[in-house]
């Protein structure tokens, strides 16, 4: 099932981007994609230089490759 793959891939990425996943628990919505939602703690952390913008861009690239946002 595609959603199981996406969920599994999402958890796999957590090992590569621990700083993003540490912040993700603070997002307003439990299913936040960290791309556009209001109250996204990850986006706020990137804006405040708590998370490197280059790391965030790499995260988005890997999520797109996984098919999560297609």
Total number of helical segments? 4
Structural class: mainly alpha
**Rg, nearest Å:** 12 Å
Strand content: under 5%
Mean pLDDT: 84
Overall geometric form: globular
- As a percent range, the share of helical residues equals 55-70%
Ends distance: 15 Å
* Tally of DSSP β-strands: 0
Largest sheet: none
> Ranges with pLDDT <50 over ≥5 residues?
1-6
Taken in chain order, the helices and strands follow as: HHHH
Give structural attributes.
mainly alpha; 4 helices; disordered N terminus; 70 residues; globular; 60% helix
Describe the structure.
This protein is mainly alpha-helical. The chain has four helices and no strands. The chain has helices at residues 2-16, 18-24, 41-47, 53-65. Mean pLDDT is 84; it is low at 1-6.
Put the structure in a nutshell.
The protein has four helices and no strands.
List the helices and strands and how they pair.
Layout: H1 2-16, H2 18-24, H3 41-47, H4 53-65
């Amino acid at each position: 099932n595609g959603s199981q793959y996406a969920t599994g891939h999402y958890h796999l990425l957590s090992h590569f981007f621990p700083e993003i996943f540490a912040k993700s628990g603070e997002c307003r919505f439990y299913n936040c994609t960290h791309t556009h939602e209001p109250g996204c703690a990850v986006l706020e952390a990137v804006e405040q230089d708590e998370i490197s913008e280059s790391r965030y861009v790499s995260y988005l690239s890997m999520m797109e490759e996984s098919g999560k946002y297609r």
